[in-house]
Design goal:
Pfam families: TerD. By secondary structure, the chain is mainly beta. The protein is built from one helix and ten strands.
Length: 175
């Protein structure tokens, strides 16, 4: 008997923000995806996709990356082909981290940050980060594989006060 509940298959994540004011250092936000083989708290991600990279098997790709927020539409775009992920992967967490090169910046310091999670034309989630305005990084999406092998989505907006180098190691914490 086949399973008619297909779950989430292929997702696009888009991130945008407004450029910093004229004469100010540019704001640089980055999408980050972490894959996990265990759902246990504190488990390290198997790999991270960020900063112009892709997963080793090509199932998660950063398709567009900006360092300034300039331009029309989305500044960063990531595609997650969950249905192609190897069966050993049970969880994927997606977040945003603010680069801290020119001093500490939080989401409150960034004008117009917004992220969308889409499956085809269906919007699964949208966030403006106002609920985590004092954070320097945040997770906003979690995908988990159920017993049938189908992927489930839940929105998980959680702020972190961490630097880009450390975000990957804490973004999957179950707190």
């Amino acid at each position: 008997m086949s399973n008619l509940n297909r779950g989430v298959a292929k997702v696009e994540v888009t991130l945008k923000w407004d450029p910093s004011p004229l004469g100010a250092a540019p704001h640089d936000l980055d999408l980050v995806a972490a894959t996990y083989t265990s759902e246990g708290a504190g488990a390290a991600p198997d790999y991270l996709v960020h900063f112009d990279s892709r997963s080793p098997d090509g199932t998660i790709t950063l398709d567009r990356q900006s360092r300034t927020g300039q331009g029309f539409g989305s500044d960063e775009e990531m595609t997650l082909e969950l249905e192609r992920l190897a069966p050993r992967y049970t969880r994927v967490v997606v977040g945003v981290v603010i680069q801290q090169r020119d001093g500490r910046r939080t989401f409150a310091d960034i004008t117009g940050p917004a992220v969308r999670v889409l499956e085809g034309y269906t919007e699964l989630a949208e966030h403006d980060f106002s609920a985590v305005a004092g954070a320097t990084a945040a997770t906003f999406a979690e995908f988990t594989r159920d017993a049938s092998g189908a992927w489930r989505f839940r929105t998980v907006l959680r702020g972190f006060d961490t630097d880009p180098q450390s975000f990957g190691s804490v973004m999957g914490d179950l707190a």
